[in-house]
Every structure is written in structure tokens, then in C-alpha cells.
Amino acid sequence: MDRPRRVLVQLDTSMRVNLFDTIAGIDQGIDIVLPIPNVSPQEVDALVQDALFSRAPTYSTAFWVGGRDHRKTLAVFSAVVQAMVSPFVASVALDPSGANTTAAAVVSILKDHVSPNRGSVYIIGGSGMVGQSVLAMASREGYRLVVASLHPDRMQQVSIDLAERYKIAAPDVLSLSSPLPNDVAAVIAAGPPGVEVFRPDRLPHPVDILIDVNAVPPSGIFGVQPSDRGCLVADSPAWGALALGARKMKIHHKLLASLFLPSANAYDAMEIFELAKKVTEPET
User: In this structure, are residues 61 and 52 in contact, taking their beta carbons and an 8 Å threshold?
Assistant: First the structure.
């Protein structure tokens, strides 16, 4: 007997679904991807139960939660988990705008090159989708984090929220114009696309790694090219967005495959990072 067709239900909180997630699912070989936009928590019970009750519980259906607002996507993710009724259960992944898989790639590369006791990790763009996930994952790994922001008061509240949500130490918050810590060991730019947010000439000394998430010109870190993979920029090894993206896609594809394993799992930011640890090898 042929296996049941694998169906991925893509629940997006935005007015338009993220086509990146749709196409990644298709390229992974998932038989059917059902993108549903503008999903609210109130609709989730009906959507989830309609998807699951229509088929035998064979782990051939899974859910992907996306969007551009952390709070909305977290609410929908939680609602998906709560809507399932045994034995009609399925796996669900939370990856709003690719933030969690991208952050998992960033922090796994950070771990390859910088031990937590080397010094502080300086992050620009900590209030954005990727930045918040990087802060949560890196803090859980024991790094001492310093986040720079144009709006430090707002970033301070984001830090408090992250600490409460993930039970982690809140990062230190500085103004973007403040001097860098003397013990800085790594710089991560997770700012908006097409905006330069950091110049390496501000560094008090060369660092162990520069990581730039931005693939849209100009680079987030001046001098870093998207394809850089350990190239020296201001005497510091640099990783650009395309090099980072190769690892992100490896994690993304592994996550998609894991959704259809014969057991149900809820992959939030931390679960995705634990999966990333198992599927990535150190970059050289």
C-alpha cells in the first residue's frame, strides 16, 4: 500500500504567507503544502482539527507556524499544540520569517568559533525577529550578551520579556553609540535588510568572529561580503549572509523532515536549536 501523502499546513499570521516557507516545503519533497494567511489563535482549533480528523493518525500531516510578529506567532503556535486531541496529533514548527532556523545557524557558527568564556558577544538588532531568537539561544548556551540599540529603553523591555519567556539571563543593553565592551569576542549584526549597522573600526581589537545576517546591500557590517566564510575583515574572521544561509537551509530542511517522523513534537526556538546541534558540523 502506498504511503499517505505528506501534507504541511502552513499557518501564517501575516496578510500574505511567506513564500520562502512554501517553496522550501515543496523543495523538500513534501507532497502538499497548504498555505493559510492571516491566521488568528481563535481560528486554530478548527483548522488543526479539520486537518487531523480527516485522516488516519499516521504522522503524515504537520504544521508550520510563521509570520512577522513574535507575539502573534507564539500565540498561534501554543494554540496549535493545545488543539490536538489524542490520537490525532502531529508535529508543529515555529519559525516566524525564518527567525528560529536563521538564529540556530548563527549561534551554531558562534559556538564553532567562540567559547562562552572568551568574552562578551556584541549584538546589533536584538529586538528584531532573528535578534530575539539569537539572544535566547546564545544566552541558553552560556554566552554573556551585550545588545546595542537605537532605542535602549524599548530593547530593555524586550530583554526582560525574553528572560521571562525562556528562563535565561537578560543581556546587557547599551545605546548603539556607546563604546563597545573591552572584552568583546564576537559581533553579530541582525539588523534590518539593506542597512549598515556596524563598522569594524569601532572594535577595540580584532575579534574571533563577525557574523552578518543581512544579504541585501549594503552589508550590515561594513566590509563583510555575503559570501564571506572566514575571510578577514579588519583582521577579524567574517561570515556573511550567504555562508550563513547555507547552514540555515540545512537546519530548515532537517526540521521539515523531522516533522513527519513517527512521533509528534513541538519545535519552538529552543527545540529547533537542539535539532541544529545534531545536524551541523563545525565550519572551517
Answer: yes
Q: Both 91 and 106 in a single domain? A: no
How far apart CA 25 and CA 253 sit, in angstroms, is 8
Domain that holds residue 141: 102-244
Asked if the structure places residue 284 within a domain, the reply is no
**Is position 238 within any domain?**
yes
* DSSP string for 121-136: EEEE-TTSHHHHHHHH
Query: Does the residue 164 lie in any domain?
Result: yes
3-state secondary structure of 213: coil
Which residues neighbour 269 within 8 Å (Cβ) at sequence distance 6 or greater?
Answer: 94, 99, 100, 103, 133, 136, 137, 166
Q: What confidence tens digit (pLDDT) does each residue in 244-283 have?
A: 999 999 999 999 999 999 999 999 999 999 999 988 655 4
* Residue whose C-alpha is closest to residue 154's, from 127, 193, 192: 127
Q: How would residue 70 be classed by pLDDT, with cut points 50, 70 and 90? A: confident
Q: Could you tell me the pTM of the whole model?
A: 0.94
Q: How many CB atoms lie within 10 A of CB 90?
A: 25
Query: Treating both helix axes as pointing N-terminal to C-terminal, what angle do 41-53 and 70-83 enclose, rounded to 10 degrees?
Result: 40
Give the closest residue to 136 by CA, choosing from 158, 154, 114, 112: 158
Cell numbers found for residue 277:
546541534
Closest alpha carbon to 99 in 89, 91, 107: 107
The reply to whether 122 and 236 lie within a common domain is yes
Non-local CB neighbours of 2 within 8 Å, separated by 6+ positions:
none
pLDDT at residue 280 in the model: 65
**Nearest-angstrom CA–CA distance, 195 and 49:** 42
Backbone angles phi, psi at 117, to 5 degrees: -90, 5
